[in-house]
Design goal:
The protein is α/β, with parallel strands linked by helices and about 290 residues long. The chain has eleven helices and twelve strands. The structure holds 3-methyl-2-oxobutanoic acid.
Length: about 290
């Protein structure tokens, strides 16, 4: 792993030694050849500079997901997430990374009205963050917007299946596509987003066979979350996979139990402060010599 130093004059995380080029949308899109992806695409969400630094060497893409609404801000859903939040966290993640492609979610209300509205929001996100792609939710209805953006120099990641910004019309966060009519609609959505030019498609919270069928029938790489191991890549919300929450969805695998370890560290610290056993001479300044 590269050593990282922070240039405090610009706040930019500068890797040392300077590694190679960042992943690009075309290079990731090109991983899928004739419907097959030899090297699965690794994606995680990141919301802060330091987490980006830690994840970057291991990931092809870092997603500044609007899940930051719940994860960082304690909001009840992604609906209240703002452009300002996405831009601030997107810029931090770009500063903390050098290898992975950084994609930033378009927040609810910033793109649905028209392709022109979407272009204004996406270009603002790209200018303010330095990210190389945006992600937006929706299928057939949003496909013309995806085409509009991709024809104007904006790499787009689609997102179909369980689309959390539509929680109020979906009626919850349950897995989608249990009934044939809904399964057909999800497949049609994925095909429309693919044909509109998305360079990747996130498929979230669907029956495994639907995700597999989508991955086999669209030309863009499909990134699964609660989907299928047959997808061309996988994404998880970083705080979920690190075990930061007591409850996680069924599709999350916990790779650590950070919530417990942080609680334990805080408990030990509190005990030592109360016992006056912290700080010791190791952590205090004394005159030299
Ligand atoms: O907002 C987010 O984190 C996402 C991922 C779950 C794909 O959209």
């Amino acid at each position: 792993m590269s050593k990282v130093t922070i240039d405090t004059s610009t706040s930019r995380a500068t890797p040392s030694p300077v590694p190679g080029k960042r992943m690009t949308a075309p290079s990731l899109r090109a991983r899928k050849i004739d419907g097959k992806t030899e090297q699965p695409i690794v994606m995680l969400t990141a919301y802060t500079m330091r987490m980006a630094q830690l994840l970057d060497p291991h990931c092809d893409m870092l997603l500044v997901g609007d899940s930051l609404g719940q994860v960082i801000y304690g909001l009840p859903s992604t609906i209240p997430v703002t452009m300002e939040m996405m831009c601030a966290h997107g810029a931090a993640v770009v500063r903390g990374s050098w290898h992975a492609l950084v994609a930033v979610d378009m927040p609810f209300g910033s793109y649905e009205q028209s392709p022109a509205q979407a272009f204004a929001s996406a270009s603002r996100i790209m200018k303010e963050t330095g990210c190389a792609a945006i992600k937006l939710e929706g299928g057939e209805a949003i496909a013309p917007t995806i085409e509009f953006l991709t024809h104007r120099g904006i790499p787009v990641i689609g997102h179909v299946g369980l689309t959390p910004q539509a929680v109020n019309t979906l009626g919850g966060y349950g897995a989608r596509g249990r009934e044939q009519r809904e399964a057909d609609k999800i497949l049609a959505d994925a095909r429309a987003v693919d044909q509109a030019g998305a360079f990747c498609i996130v498929v979230e919270g669907v029956m495994e066979d639907i995700a597999t069928e989508i991955a086999r029938s669209v030309s863009a790489p499909v990134i699964g979350i609660g989907a299928s191991a047959e997808c061309d890549g996988q994404v998880l919300v970083i705080d979920d996979m690190l075990g930061m929450f007591e409850r996680t969805p069924r599709f999350v695998k916990r790779y650590d139990d950070l919530a417990e370890r942080i609680g334990e560290a805080a408990r030990t610290y509190a005990e030592e402060v109360r016992a006056r056993s912290f700080p010791t001479s190791d952590q205090t300044y004394r005159p030299k010599g």
